[in-house]
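Reviewers of the previous submission asked for a worked example of the structure-prediction workflow described in the proposal, so we include one complete record here. The input consisted solely of the amino acid sequence. No template or homolog information was supplied to the procedure at any stage.
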Amino acid sequence: MLIIPVLDVKDGHVVRAQMGMRETYKPIETPLSPTTAIGSVAEGLRSIHPFPVFYVADLDAIENGSNALATADPLFLLQPKPDVWLDAGFRNTKDVEKALANTGTFAVLGSESQADTDVLGAFGTHPRLILSLDFRGNAFLGPPAILSQPALWPKRIIVMTLDKVGARRGPDFDRLQAIKNVAGDREIIAAGGVRNVDDLKRLNGMGVAGALVATSLHSGELGAAEISAFMGR
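From that input alone, the workflow returned the following structure tokens.
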């Protein structure tokens, strides 16, 4: 099972995300890093485990549509160099093409940023295109056709429940199972609410392929031993 640390970036700082209320996010305070710079926080996370993948959410780009593909560049200085799953509010094929031009970057297509299925249709078969199905409460964020047409989905799907993020309420197990039931052999990645090793065990038992995690890494509830138990050393 893949454990993927999350780096939410706003105004140049890694911030602490909570319940998807982005206007309230503040620069992160973590024992893993003396600063809020993305490279420093990533190095701190790597002190727990040699994570091969980081998820980066460029919140300014998601909110405003700005094109800031350089946000994740400091991560490519880490050794060994990680893969980066980048959500930069991609809304058109040109920006997705730019992201995918870097072989270490996986473009995360957030459903909340889409006006229709055109971008998904253009890149759905690309091996480094990831679809994020975004929810707030019971509401799907994005064009209904994205949710209702799983044939369009790429091989890897993030199920993002924004009001679970940083809320310490546990993952949305029912929604994850519902998406998994229609996803065929696609990989499902849980996002939002992972608190501890018990949550990871339950997700693993469901056949969920991975989980995006932030708060429990910085709090120490998921440490080196717990991560290694799922990912190996």
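The longest helix spans residues 173-182. We consider this example representative of the routine output the project will generate in years two and three.
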